[in-house]
Every structure is written in C-alpha cells, then in structure tokens.
Amino acid sequence: xxxxxxxxxxxxxxxxxxxxxxxxxxxxxxxxxxxxxxxxxxxxxxxxxxxxxxxxxxxxxxxxxxxxxxxxxxxxxxxxxxxxxxxxxxxxxxxxxxxxxxxxxxxxxxxxxxxxxxxxxxxxxxxxxxxxxxxxxxxxxxxxxxxxxxxxxxxxxxxxxxxxxxxxxxxxxxxxxxxxxxxxxxxxxxxxxxxxxxxxxxxxxxxxxxxxxxxxxxxxxxxxxxxxxxxxxxxxxxxxxxxxxx
Length: 246
Description:
alpha/beta; Rossmann fold; 7 helices
C-alpha cells in the first residue's frame, strides 16, 4: 500500500515561523489535517486562518512546559480521534564559545532542543502505541554530526536528539511506529536570531546569507518521509545546501 499525506493528522511544534511554518504550508497543500503549536499565538492563528485549518488548529505551546505539549497532542486526538505524525521541530541556536559562560543560553538549548523533543515523544507515544501506528519525526542538525567552535552545546543537544531517536526507533517496533531524524544544514529560519553574542551572530548571519536554502527544502524532506509506504521506515535524512562545506 502506498503512503499518503492526505488526511493524516499531523502535529507540528515551532510552527509559527521558519521550518515549522514552511512544513505546515507544504503539508496542508497535500491534504494533511494539521494541529499547530508555538509560543506566538497571534502568528500561529494567522497561519491557521490562511491555511483554512479552523480556529482550534492553533494551540499556544511552549515546548519547555510538558503540560502544554501534552495539551497540544491531546487536543489533536480529541479533535480528530488519532495522531498520525508528530514533528518535534521547535528549536533555538544561541551559539557562543564555552569560555564566555553563557549558562542561560545553554539551559535554554537543553530545555527547548532536547527536553522539548522528549516532551513531544512522551505526549504522542501513548496514543500511538494504543493505535499501533504513528510516526515521530525529530529535528536534529548537521551540528548533530559535526561540531565546530562556538557550537558545542547546540551540537550536544542535536547529537542527543539523534541518540534518543535511535533508541526510540528500536523500542517502538512492536507498535508499528515509524521514526525519522531530519538533520538540516543552513536553511532559512529564525535560528540565527536566537544568538545573543553580537560577534557570533554577525558571523552566522553572514554565513546564512551566503549559503542558506529556503525552508521549503526542509518541508519536502518531511513530506518524503511521511509519504513512504507503511512498510518503509526512513530513519534519518541529512541534507545541506550544495554550497555548504561544513
């Protein structure tokens, strides 16, 4: 049986901008039933209206709050009777050298990039195990494969996402659940805006301006993984701009 996106109930975190927003647009055009989560409710509601998703499809969600993530997923199930896919997409990237001691930035990355993903898994897994079907997509990064100066903590969170996703893959086999890690390189998003050190931000912004590709490139990777036949489990996609060396 061929896979299809049409009619699938898909939850996306970090959906108010960047990769999440682009993915919502792409999947909506293919007939997905979407429930969107993000902190910025006004932007989320505007996107839901534009995509004619209905007023209840936008759910204010801070992924650092386990209860809010659970509410997002439970609402999708209450509205549609099931959850077919969760895209744990919310993330931030405040790069800095470790010697600068930006401990608050480190904590934020761990809370959003790692714990936010875990909260998404914790919220979706009970429904998917009961259904004996589902697809959990976690967002890592090229930085989850390769660390560079100034990105140590960010790379650590993204490497951790890959490791927990691989552990999850093996654990959910009895429940017919698929798992995918998507590791993008420089893709146009608000990630560079989360950098708090001016000199680091300037370097990353220049790099993104030189090589970053549109966010729709990420959306197509998500759609590819979801649309495979049910007996095909695409476990990891690593992609970069053709011009990106690192």
